[in-house]
Write a structure and sequence with these properties.
By secondary structure, the chain is mainly alpha-helical. It contains seven helices and three strands; from the N terminus they run ααααβααββα. The longest helix has 24 residues. 15% of the residues are buried.
Length: 166
């Protein structure tokens, strides 16, 4: 709605600028002069720049589906299918229903859910005698390597220890 008001103000300012241009600088030109589109573009860009300078640029938040799908693509089956199905169900689902929809045995689904929980991707809870699987929020997902920031050094140390203790 703010954009509509800002656009209306910009158009009004463009007409005012054109009016001043015709009456002060070019009295023999017709009132809506051929410069009106250029004035309109100038004013729209100026108003938008001022608006973003004052209020700051806040990108439109998109659904985080992309992040969850990236995580899902790093998983093996059946963890991937379970993870995606839970996301499609709003981030929380009963494991037995997910298993039935995917055509998995309950034990296989339970083991896959356990592996997802070990990777800190989901939280398992008992609710009314049913196992509910809930996705962790993106803020809680760690993107750091498991062994600290310097993975190369970790591998070198590991290799060095292996050479020392055969």
């Amino acid at each position: 709605m703010k954009a509509v008001y800002l656009f209306a103000i910009a158009v009004a300012l463009a007409f005012l600028l054109d009016y001043v241009h015709v009456h002060l600088m070019c009295p023999h030109c017709p009132f809506p002069s051929p410069m009106l589109p250029i004035f309109a573009l100038l004013v729209v860009v100026t108003v938008a720049t001022l608006y973003f300078y004052i209020h700051g640029f806040k990108p439109v938040e998109t659904r985080p589906a992309g992040y969850y799908l990236v995580v899902a693509n790093l998983l093996r089956e059946p963890e991937r299918s379970i993870y995606i199905k839970i996301y499609e169900k709003g981030g929380e689902a009963v494991l037995a229903e997910v298993a039935r929809e995917l055509g998995l045995r309950k034990l296989r689904a339970w083991r896959a859910a356990q592996r997802l929980a070990e990777k800190n991707l989901v939280v398992l809870e008992k609710q009314a005698g049913r196992l509910v699987v809930r996705l962790r929020p993106l803020e809680e997902l760690s993107i750091e390597p498991e062994h600290g920031k310097n993975y190369k050094r970790y591998k070198q140390d590991k290799q060095h220890k292996a050479e020392k203790h055969p």
